Amino acid sequence: MLDLGALLKEKADDPVVEYNLGRGYLIKNQVSEATAQFQSALNHKPDYVQPRLALAQIDVSRKKSGGSALRRAGP
Q1: What is the CA radius of gyration of the chain?
Q2: Which of 5, 17, 28, 73 could tie 56 with a disulfide, CB 3.0–4.6 Å?
């Protein structure tokens, strides 16, 4: 994961790197950091489906109510 962090410094606006770094954080159960990376990836590329799905899965796993997971899953 350190390699992805270094790569992100080189490619600060690369949503694919941000998404993969988020996945690494999620594997390490660092949900807040993962969420931030997934959201950043979406800020750079709003139509990027994978981070949107990852955020929806996080919402579902946290059992958030009010349909926030469904809002994230949509365009």
Answers
A1: 12
A2: 73
